[in-house]
Amino acid sequence: MNDPAVSLRALRGATTAAANNAVAMEEAVAELLDELMQRNGLGGAEVLSAIFSVTKDLDALFPASVARRRQGWDGVALLDCQQMAVAGDLPRCIRVLVQAWLPQGQEAQHAYLRESQRLRPDRSCNQ
Q1: HSE of 83 in the Cβ direction (CA atoms, 13 Å)?
Q2: Which of 2, 49, 73, 100 has the most CB atoms in a 10 Å sphere around its CB?
Q3: Is 82 contained in some domain?
Q4: CATH code of 17's domain
Q5: Domain for residue 109, yes or no?
Q6: Dist CA 57 CA 8 (whole Å)
């Protein structure tokens, strides 16, 4: 994109799923993406890519499959991977790194929901 009014920014976010099943994971991913999009005033056209990682205790679905069904996300590059296993890591955690075009000068608003607020209390959404 050659528009000097926008800049490519990285948005971080995380959440936790209530359980290792498709319904709980889908709910958590949708809530996280909704929050990131709302906080940054984005539509699907401004999103370039999203990389999801999940802890090893989540294997019921690919988070990208939830994102792929979002309106306007048909052109977004999506990738899933497993988070590195570290002793004492937050269980059932879903993380995302989204690259999106934001208006020049707009500060990126990150989103840490549910139990993931413990990872970054300075960025928590207090939900």
Answers
A1: 22
A2: 100
A3: yes
A4: 3.30.1330.40
A5: yes
A6: 32
Annotate 15-75 with DSSP letters as a single string.
Answer: EE-SSSSHHHHHHHHHHHHHHHHHHHT--GGGEEEEEEEE-TT--SS-HHHHHHTSTT-TT
Rounded to a whole number of angstroms, the distance between the first and last alpha carbons of the chain is 35
The answer as to whether 111 is a domain residue is yes
Domain count, the chain: 1
Instruction: Tell me the pTM.
Output: 0.91
pLDDT one-digit tens code per residue, 92-127 = 999 999 999 999 999 999 999 999 988 876 765 554
* Burial track 30-69 (b if 16+ CB lie within 10 A, e otherwise): bbbbebbbeebebeeebbeebbbbbbeebeebbbbebbee
**Is 118:16 a contact under the CB 8 Å cutoff?**
no
Tokens 């539509």, residue located: 43
Domain containing 114 equals 6-123
Residue 117 lies in a domain: yes
